From TrEMBL:
This is Acetate kinase. Mg(2+) binds at residues 7, 384. The lineage of its organism: Bacteria, Bacillati, Bacillota, Clostridia, Halanaerobiales. It comes from Halanaerobium praevalens (strain ATCC 33744 / DSM 2228 / GSL). Belongs to the acetokinase family. The record marks 180, 241 as: Transition state stabilizer. Pathway: Metabolic intermediate biosynthesis; acetyl-CoA biosynthesis; acetyl-CoA from acetate: step 1/2. The keyword Plastid does not apply. GO terms for biological process: acetate metabolic process; acetyl-CoA biosynthetic process. Its EC number is 2.7.2.1. Substrate binds at residue 91. The gene is ackA. The active site is at 148 (proton donor/acceptor). It catalyses: acetate + ATP = acetyl phosphate + ADP. GO terms for cellular component: cytoplasm. Keywords: ATP-binding, Cytoplasm, Kinase, Magnesium, Metal-binding, Nucleotide-binding, Transferase.
Length: 397
């Protein structure tokens, strides 16, 4: 069974084509700058052949048409007929309260997604657009939506209700939803297998640390709390997002700088975080290089990033009544050796004993705590696309 996985953004589209008999990737890539000059398609097949196609890609429909042509290409394609693709799985950022699990997409689902689009105005509309284009181009193929928010829907009210007038929750759905759920769920399950225990018996803090970053407290297989909120802005310091701040800062700066709501929102989401503190970059690697060169702001940015993660680990350990494992994943979590050490340093009281030698690696699935460490620390590369493909296969079958 071959499944096409699509993650549609406003001006980009990531894709992977899976052979689900072996769970191998037949082709993968990215369409960039949709609707912008200089657009192109990046493509790599299962033989490692890489192709770059520079072409005017005015719309998502043009982009997906180009992708299908490339998959069918006699030169570097991996399909003889588009009917070999049996289903399409879509990453959808926000499912609101309506979707606590992956679902087969029909007209009623699309309508519900449009109704909650204002909860994720930057993400859901392009996600929906990808669904509609695939429906137009491949009308007979079943489509499945896999939601970033779904894994977190086991949170109790005490974790997801904000201390605001309750009517805002009832009227507008203002509550904590959480994101990166597909990643958190995948690495929690992998951690249980690596530790040779049942997920229902474990208390795990999963740390998805990338340009966007979030933590989740997974107790007995269910999320009891997570750091992102109504939007992906709350929680940790991120590449360009501020994370937790005093809400009163917002009107204070707006008044001082004479900013509109849109302008302050842009600052909080796109000009803050590592970029805002360091003044160097949103990429942690650039910030690390600057810190090594003696840039004080870069040093502080990294310290704040680690400190915020450490605080959340402590909070979630308290929320779960203990912790058995701490898992690092995503770009920073999988590759930043010093960051992992900086976060775990000082958590010895919890029973975490870092193995410095084991931690000296990047991008591999590995236990990085000492063999006698009471609490295990693990690095697990995430694979959200595979989760989407698996859910799609299960629902279609």
């Amino acid at each position: 069974m071959k499944i096409l996985v699509i993650n549609s953004g406003s001006s980009s589209l990531k894709y992977q084509l899976f052979n689900m008999e072996t769970e191998s990737v037949l082709a993968k890539g990215l369409i960039q700058r949709i609707g912008i000059s200089g657009s192109f398609l990046e493509y790599e097949n299962n033989e490692g052949e890489e192709v770059l196609i520079e072409k005017d890609i005015a719309t998502h429909k043009v982009g997906i048409e180009l992708l299908l042509e490339t998959l069918l290409s006699s030169e570097h394609g991996v399909l003889k007929d588009i009917d070999e693709v049996e289903a399409i799985g879509h990453r959808i950022v926000h499912g609101g309260e309506a979707f606590a699990e992956s679902t087969v997409i029909d007209e009623s689902v699309i309508k519900e997604l449009e109704e909650v689009a204002d909860l994720a105005p930057l993400h859901n509309p392009p996600n929906i657009m990808g669904i509609k284009v695939c429906k137009e181009l491949m009308p007979t193929k079943p489509q499945v939506g896999v939601f970033d928010t779904a894994f977190h829907q086991t949170m109790p009210e005490k974790a997801y209700i904000y201390a605001l007038p309750y009517e805002y929750y009832k009227k507008y759905g203002v509550r904590r939803y959480g994101f990166h759920g597909t990643s958190h769920g995948y690495v929690a399950q992998r951690a249980a297998k690596m530790l040779e225990k049942d997920l229902s018996e474990l208390k795990i803090v999963t740390c998805h640390l990338g340009n966007g970053a979030s933590l989740a407290a997974v107790k007995n297989g269910e999320v009891v709390d997570t750091s992102m909120g109504l939007t992906p802005l709350e929680g940790l310091v991120m590449g360009t997002r501020c994370g937790d701040i005093d809400p009163a800062i917002i009107p204070f700066i707006m008044e001082k700088e004479d900013l509109s709501a849109a302008e302050i929102d842009n600052i909080l989401n796109k000009k803050s975080g590592l970029l805002g503190i360091s003044g160097v970059s949103s990429d942690s690697r650039d910030v690390e290089n600057a810190a090594e060169s003696g840039n004080h702001q870069a040093e502080v940015a990294l310290e704040i990033f680690n400190y915020r993660v450490k605080k959340y680990i402590g909070a979630y350990t308290a929320a779960m009544g203990g912790v058995d494992a701490i898992v690092f994943t995503a770009g920073i979590g999988e590759n930043a050796i010093e960051t992992r050490a900086g976060i775990l340093n000082g958590l010895e009281y919890l029973g975490v004993e870092l193995d410095e030698e084991a931690n000296d690696m990047r991008g591999k699935e590995k236990v990085i705590s000492k063999s006698d460490s009471k609490v295990k620390a693990l690095v697990i590369p995430t694979n959200e696309e595979l989760v989407i493909a698996r859910d799609t296969k299960d629902l279609v079958n």
